[in-house]
Specification:
Distance between the termini: 68 Å
Largest sheet: none
Protein name: PXMP4 protein
Pfam families: Tim17 (PF02466)
Structural class: mainly alpha
Strand content: under 5%
């Protein structure tokens, strides 16, 4: 046992020395980016998939657990691959031009988004919609900072909240098919299932009765 510890320590010292080499920093950052993307994707998706699956999906426990695992794996894999692609393209452009410029980030992310998130599936759709809302907020704030639009005299958030909720409920009531399935499920639970009950059990305890009464 003691004889194997020496080579292991030597290997760890060599790995640590390699990680400190500046010439390999860009390549190592790509590898760690892949690692961080995989971990972060799993941390974000697993709790979300757990809640949504047990709240809205039917099926056996094994089927639910399989669905959670598949969703977590897909999110983790896609985010890891995107970070790997983005940082790799960023490093390649910087090396070719000898410096880093803002357009490099935009181009690398566009190509990564096309390659990794271009498939229109539920996981990618949720990620893109999440980012879209943040992008719109960010661009609005940037436009104010740059002076393209004037600084609002009052906080516009209350008006935004009113318009968002008014629009989404109008879509749910009259054009439901345009909304994402998970949002449809949430809205159905909140605004339609709350109008149906038979006795105290499915009024306060359960959302829906499971017997044939």
């Amino acid at each position: 046992m003691a004889g194997g510890a020496g080579p292991l320590r030597a290997l760890l010292r060599a790995a640590n020395a390699l990680l400190l080499q500046r010439r390999y920093r860009a390549a190592l950052a790509v590898i760690k980016g892949f690692r961080n993307g995989a971990v972060y994707g799993a941390k974000i998706r697993a709790p979300h998939a757990l809640v949504m699956t047990f709240l809205f999906k039917s099926g056996s426990l094994r089927e639910k657990l399989r669905s959670i695992a598949q969703a977590t794996y897909a999110h983790s894999r896609n985010l890891a691959c995107f970070v790997f692609t983005y940082k790799g393209l960023l490093a390649a452009q910087s090396r070719l031009q000898g410096k880093k410029i803002p357009f490099h980030s935009f181009l690398a992310a566009c190509l990564g988004g096309w390659l990794v998130f271009g498939d229109n599936n539920p996981i990618n759709s949720q990620i893109i919609m999440y980012l879209l809302s943040r992008v719109l907020f960010g661009l609005s704030r940037l436009a104010v900072q740059k002076g393209y639009i004037p600084q609002p005299r009052q906080d516009p958030f209350p008006l935004l909240a009113a318009l968002v909720w008014g629009t989404v409920l109008w879509l749910f009531e009259y054009h439901r098919e345009t909304l994402q399935p998970s949002l449809q499920s949430s809205m159905t639970y909140l605004y339609e299932d709350s109008e149906v009950w038979h006795d105290l059990s499915d009024f306060l305890v359960y959302n829906k009765r499971t017997d044939n009464k």
